[in-house]
Amino acid sequence: MEMRTLGRTGIKVSPLCLGAMMFGAWGGNDETSAVPIVHAALDAGINFIDTADVYSWGGSEQIVGKALAGRRDDVVLATKVHYPMQPGVGPGDAVPNRSGNSRRWITRAVEDSLRRLGTDYIDIYYAHRPDPDTDIEETLSVLTDLVRSGKVRAIGTSTFPAEQIVEAQWVAERRGYERFKVEQPPYSILNRSVEAAVLPTCQRYGIGVLTWSPLSEGWLTGRYQGDFERGKGRQIAHPQQFDPELPGNIAKREAVGKLIDLANETGCSLIHLALAFVRAHPAVTSTIIGPRTMEQLKDLLAGAEVGIDADVLDRIDEIVPPGVVLNAADSHHTAVELTDSVLRRRPNLPSSTVLVTDER
């Protein structure tokens, strides 16, 4: 595969990155089935593997580490820190001093990841999500120490809003810390929200972009058209993204129907059309594919060289306009200022106080 430089890191990566979220208990892939998928991806020219400590609560990292035995030096390996490492604790739940982006937690989490991965360094180490309780200066300080100690080669963010990416760049410059050099946002035909600010911001600062969910949680495989078996896996954990009665999901099904017709007209599969769309954006360096099976991997690899011309991209714009996300839940991050009512309301406001009047 043609190698691309990841932002200004100097690191060369393949345009497809093997995502390992489905390795371990979460995806039902044990070492026996997952290791051959890793080896097949490497043999096909992929040199970029992405995982996270929280995936299967460390199980994914362990499998990746075993799969890379003897091949570690040829692979760009990325993992993440932020979420609590306790089975049964939801991603949105914080565990005091055992989650987030603090020095205390990152210092411990990185050592655990290195041990599970069976390596003495991580190529790209991500803050998996923003942490409203931790000053970005604190996070950059500890990540800088990890880079300077040789345990981490470069640092990045995942699903950060544009304003926080910019703030982190300013703090790094002002304090002499390492800069975040990679951002990993969700991006697909059905979720184009990052086109408005995140991708332009990354271009402005020379930040490499590794996108995730190019198939929009499976919607762009066509599996959720017509009747489908409900109440399984991610559909249970994230009903807001799959409930067919919700307006956002109705809109997704309508869009996918039109995209299937467009794919048929262009002579490629819907999956290959979706992957080519993401790769067509000039800000995107690489995109994550997350196969559960060897058959899925082969199909995804077959689309690695598929391109689409401007006319087809224009047709896609007519189906889902630039910057639009059909279901807000697909963005996977809502600012705490919108979810915590205390941050939106002045406390102990006298009941006699009138804030808004309308004399018309």
UniProtKB/TrEMBL annotation:
Organism taxonomic ancestry: Bacteria, Bacillati, Actinomycetota, Actinomycetes, Pseudonocardiales
Keywords attached to this entry: Oxidoreductase
Domain annotation NADP-dependent oxidoreductase: ranges: 15-320
GO cellular component term of the entry, any: cytosol
Organism (species): Kibdelosporangium aridum
The keyword Transmembrane is assigned to this record: no
Molecular-function GO terms, alphabetical: oxidoreductase activity
Gene3D superfamilies: NADP-dependent oxidoreductase domain
Name the record gives this protein: Aldo/keto reductase
One Pfam family it belongs to: Aldo_ket_red
